[in-house]
Amino acid sequence: MLLAAPALFASNMVAARWAHDAALPPVFLAFGRWLIAFLILLPLAAPALLRHRQALWRGLPTLLPLAVLGMGVAVAPQYIGAQSTSATNIALIFSCSPILVALLEALIWRKPLPPLRAAGLALALGGVLVVLTRGDASVLARLAFGQGDLWVLLAATGWAFYTVLQKRLTLPAVPDGARLAAMMLGGAIALAPFAGIEAAAGATPPWTDPRLAAVLLFLAVVPSLGAYYVYGRLISRAGPATAGLSMFLVPVYAALLAWPLLGEAPQLFHAYGFVMILLGVKLASSRMRATTAGAAAPA
């Protein structure tokens, strides 16, 4: 799951670039993504939704913030930022979300940051920089950050809060499919007013463009149903800090996806960066597993 989740999320970046080239409204794209994902999941989740409707209603104060953060704040600003910033900047900012997760847990929940975990985070971040700079450190001096990058930073912050709160909050004891469907519906409802404002401002969807249906269906199935289900399971099994480490791998997978889709062949620096990221993730996550095991062992 640690390797699969970032691959599914990386597909979102490729689709977002395609959507930008097709002039698809970014907020409508986020809204339609979750609405279609909910409709696809509904036939499978309907029995559990009906059976656990009272538990879901009682868990609304928990599920609603998660839906707003994970399906709204972490998605729509990313699509808005893609209108005016580069894919390199998006990958660089979003790959720092594990750092944000660690800082949130350390500052708000007072969770200590062991030295080995900090070293693993630094090593993984170094691998990300190797990939994004193509092994040329001088590229960092030429990176420019603007308004689009602030939108992406907002999305990355929302994702970090979503990651931490999904483990810290007491979720209703319902099947995973029912909980995911409820949050998808909550995300679509939260985004609907903003999609309406976007349309009123003149950014209407091109209904006759077949690319609209294609990108919405792809986003609903792969980075929505697939990625969020795998990531939710990863959080429940390994904790938010370990799950957050998977985001370091997103830029690597994005580069690999760009090979067949955009004609950008992998280079040697991709291999160097990938090895650094894997070693950093293993170092940080193994330290946390050892700490957890020691805490659970009887005296």
TrEMBL record:
The chain crosses the membrane at residues 31-50, 62-80, 86-109, 116-133, 145-165, 177-200, 212-231, 243-262, 268-285. GO terms for cellular component: membrane. This is EamA domain-containing protein. Keywords: Membrane, Transmembrane, Transmembrane helix. It is found in: Membrane. The keyword Transmembrane helix applies. InterPro entries: AA-Vitamin_Transporters, EamA_dom, EmrE-like. Belongs to the EamA transporter family. It comes from Achromobacter insuavis. It holds the Pfam family EamA. Residues 2-132, 148-284 form the EamA domain. The keyword Transferase does not apply. It is a multi-pass membrane protein.
